[in-house]
Design brief:
Layout: E1 3-6, E2 11-15, E3 21-25, E4 64-65, E5 67-81, E6 93-102, E7 106-117, E8 120-128, H1 131-134, H2 148-154, H3 175-182, E9 188-194, E10 210-216, H4 220-229, E11 234-235, E12 246-252, E13 257-259, H5 261-265, E14 300-302, E15 306-318, E16 341-345, E17 355-360, E18 373-376
Antiparallel strand pairs: 1-2, 2-3, 4-10, 5-6, 5-17, 5-18, 6-16, 7-8, 7-9, 7-11, 9-10, 12-15, 12-17, 13-14, 15-16
């Protein structure tokens, strides 16, 4: 066992078993933090589809969209050629577990500009397309021009105290609104897009989800002009991402409800000799503190959390007309894939029918080798 003795110059003397002294810096004595705080608090997500607040920045001159969304259909396996020359299986066929995501086109609804304030980014203004003519079906429930309290009172319920009035957005953008936004000192420009769930037969909801996606490339003026040209147009997945690219996938995991500390944190079962109960923690902390610390692992909500999977590689971008992907009997708890789809390497968070969001990789790893898929399994998943 080594013994440390402090020194006046910010270092210590280590005395080993051999009796020799070795001077080491205090910075050399470090360890990882005991216990992750990255998943705190472990509570239910606010909504079923996640919100992305961080978009990677680049110095590219070409303007492009940085995000998309799709519905998780299920998993299967593929055979692909390993084109990584540094791999031990280079040149051979390898088997990979993959996830199928159905990605129908999205519609650009609006352009939003941000200005910098001492408290962070603040919305400077929005320019919306003519939703009455170019908007998707069933979008009107998202733009009810009434407060929640007024709707409750009309329908005979107790009026709610929350819910602000949403302005009507059914008219085409005016030149005054466009010039007003252009004259502001903008630091970022993003798009507001919506999904088209009525195109997906396996999804129970038919009301579009509205979300924000980032733009990269060029300055704010060119981004604003580019976004105005795209108002009301459809956005395809291949317009945003390319084959072989790595993306971050953000989703809400499968909910497990209220679970105990053994299943929630993987605690060790207590011995049958020293306790009447085994599926609990050893103690709740010291007596003198007077309260239970938040780091004590206790029972609570498990699952239905927002999680981000980094650097998931796109192995195929296709549609059922070019290559059929639905297995015999359909995907479990989903059905058939009838729209454009993508194949993502590995597993993704959430159950089938869960809406997933894709973003440019914020910490890319630069994959080596081209994607060469030789076989995709469409065998039945029933009883697997």
């Amino acid at each position: 066992m080594s013994r440390y003795f402090p020194d006046v110059e910010g270092s210590v003397l280590e005395k080993s078993r051999t009796g020799n002294d070795r001077r080491i810096s205090m910075a050399d004595r470090h360890r990882p933090r005991r216990g992750s705080m990255g998943y705190s608090p472990r509570k239910r997500s606010v909504r079923q589809f996640p919100r992305i607040s961080t978009w990677p920045s680049s110095h590219s001159s070409e303007i492009r969209v940085q995000g998309f969304a799709g519905w998780k259909a299920g998993m299967t396996h593929i055979m692909m050629k390993d084109n990584n020359p540094n791999s031990t299986s280079a040149g051979q066929e390898i088997r990979k577990a993959v996830t199928i995501v159905e990605t129908p086109p999205m519609i650009v609804l609006a352009v939003r500009g941000y200005r910098a304030t001492p408290y962070g980014l603040q919305t400077a203004g929005e320019i919306w397309s003519d939703i009455s003519s170019t908007g998707p079906d069933n979008l009107s429930p998202r733009f009810a021009n009434q407060t929640k309290g007024e709707r409750d009172e009309e329908e005979g319920r107790k009026p709610s105290k929350r819910g602000g009035r949403i302005p009507s957005r059914e008219s085409a953008p005016s030149e005054d609104a466009i010039n007003s936004l252009k004259n502001q000192d903008l630091v970022d420009v993003r798009l507001i897009v919506c999904t088209q769930p009525y195109m997906v037969s396996s999804i129970p909801t038919k009301t579009p989800e509205i979300m924000e996606v980032g733009l990269e490339g060029g300055d704010t003026t060119s981004k604003l002009d580019w976004g105005l040209e795209k108002l009301g147009e459809k956005l395809e997945f291949q317009d945003v991402f390319s084959l072989g690219q790595e993306v971050d996938v953000v989703g809400v995991t499968k909910g497990k409800g209220w679970q105990g500390s053994i299943k929630r944190f993987g605690l060790k079962l207590l011995s049958h000799k020293n306790s009447k109960r085994r599926r609990q923690g050893g103690n709740m902390g010291d007596f003198g503190t007077g309260y239970v610390r938040k780091t004590i692992r206790q029972a609570g909500q498990l699952g239905y959390h927002k999680r981000t999977e980094l650097n998931k590689r796109i192995l195929r971008i296709s549609n059922p007309d070019e290559s059929e992907i639905t297995p015999a009997g359909g995907f479990l708890h989903y059905g058939e894939v009838v729209n454009p789809y993508i194949i993502i390497e590995g597993s993704l968070p959430g159950p089938a029918k869960r809406l997933l969001r894709f973003r440019d990789a914020i910490r890319p790893s630069n994959p080596v080798g081209d994607v060469e898929v030789t076989y995709v399994s469409t065998s039945s998943k029933q009883g697997v």
